């Protein structure tokens, strides 16, 4: 699963990407320093994994990961091609969710493409460009959907009616995500404004906080996070510097509606990523397709219970391993052994 880091130029996107991934990227103080997207893989912080690994004395410990994609800054008019906008919007189409970086501090030494900092306006610019690109995509699909509806198939007629309503919503300036009713059409057309969004407000100490921040948002001093990420773990501990990025990574994981289950043993303890509300066979697919196709049952225990008991074998002795079948919905934090 991947997250696209999106925003206007010079708001801190590449600084965030470098702090997250430790990859060197161009952070120059001018628009479009990034042209082609940078991609990096980031571990999902999870203390449960390390506790289970310690319990099992595992030789290897493998965390869950998220891929972050640093996408070049969008500008007003991007949907019409301004600032290579069409190319950059296409990059957004390839990601599963959006991490929108919004700068909320003034700094005369850092160029702002609009001349001044205005978080509300900047969010509106980005979202308007997403909507305009989606409108172009949706309108171009109308004739195809209409032809299919003329066959008389009820489902195709319903799809055409949904698309017409979606086009009306986009024309009125509403994001595709504002209507759950048209979610299936939005996903089929891979609409940009249907993707879940987490807002990252980039601030500096003393910055006045904007009012009425979107509910799904985090406040991070990205320059400070970048500087802390450059320190060794020893120096961070000595200086008492604690990174805020783990909070942001976890929120991104939740944004994608993902949960984690674990497998643990002497050879390896591993965190596995699956969609929320997955049934046991689907969870098995995360390990190997055979685990889904040939699923018989799963032995399950919650991670805290396993730590409390002290070992997998003792949990079995005490009858604490639950036997679950194909309809079992996996919970975040389950430790599972599959039987195929």
From TrEMBL:
UniProt keywords, alphabetically: ATP-binding, Magnesium, Metal-binding, Nucleotide-binding
GO terms of molecular function: ATP binding; ATP hydrolysis activity; GTP binding; metal ion binding
Keyword Magnesium: yes
One matching Pfam family: MMR_HSR1
Domain of life: Bacteria
Annotated OBG-type G domain residues: 1-202
GO cellular component, one term: cytoplasm
Xref: InterPro entries: ATPase_YchF/OLA1 (IPR004396), Beta-grasp_dom_sf (IPR012675), G_OBG (IPR031167), GTP-bd (IPR006073), P-loop_NTPase (IPR027417), TGS-like (IPR012676), TGS-like_dom_sf (IPR023192), YchF_C (IPR013029)
CDD domains: TGS_YchF_OLA1, YchF
Protein name: GTP-binding protein YchF
């Amino acid at each position: 699963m991947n997250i696209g880091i999106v925003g206007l130029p010079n708001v801190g996107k590449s600084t965030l990407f470098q702090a997250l991934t430790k990859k060197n990227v161009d952070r120059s103080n001018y628009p479009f320093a990034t042209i082609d997207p940078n991609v990096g893989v980031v571990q999902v912080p999870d203390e449960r994994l390390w506790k289970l690994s310690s319990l099992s004395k595992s030789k290897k410990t493998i965390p869950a990961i998220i891929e972050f994609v640093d996408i070049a800054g969008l500008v007003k008019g991007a949907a019409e091609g301004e600032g290579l906008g069409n190319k950059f919007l296409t990059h957004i189409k390839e990601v599963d969710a959006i991490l929108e970086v919004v700068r909320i501090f003034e700094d005369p030494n850092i160029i702002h493409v609009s001349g001044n900092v205005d978080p509300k306006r900047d969010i509106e610019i980005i979202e308007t460009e997403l909507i305009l690109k989606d409108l172009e995509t949706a309108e171009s699909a109308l004739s195809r959907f209409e032809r299919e509806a003329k066959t008389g198939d009820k489902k195709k007629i319903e799809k055409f009616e949904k698309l017409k309503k979606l086009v009306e919503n986009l024309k009125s300036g509403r994001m595709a995500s504002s209507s759950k009713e048209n979610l299936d059409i939005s996903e089929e057309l891979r609409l940009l404004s249907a993707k879940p969004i987490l807002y990252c407000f980039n601030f500096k100490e003393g910055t006045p906080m904007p009012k009425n921040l979107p509910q799904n948002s985090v406040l991070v001093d990205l320059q400070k996070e970048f500087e802390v990420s450059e320190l060794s773990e020893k120096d961070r501990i000595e200086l008492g510097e604690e990174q805020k990025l783990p909070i942001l990574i976890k929120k991104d994981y939740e944004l994608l509606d993902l949960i984690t289950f674990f497998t643990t043993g002497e050879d390896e303890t591993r965190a596995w990523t699956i969609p929320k509300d997955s049934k046991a066979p689907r969870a098995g697919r995360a390990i190997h397709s055979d685990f889904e196709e040939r699923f018989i049952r799963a032995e399950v225990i919650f991670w805290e219970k396993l730590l409390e008991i002290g070992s997998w074998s003792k949990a079995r002795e005490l009858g604490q391993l639950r036997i679950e079948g194909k309809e079992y919905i996996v919970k975040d934090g389950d430790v599972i052994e599959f039987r195929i």
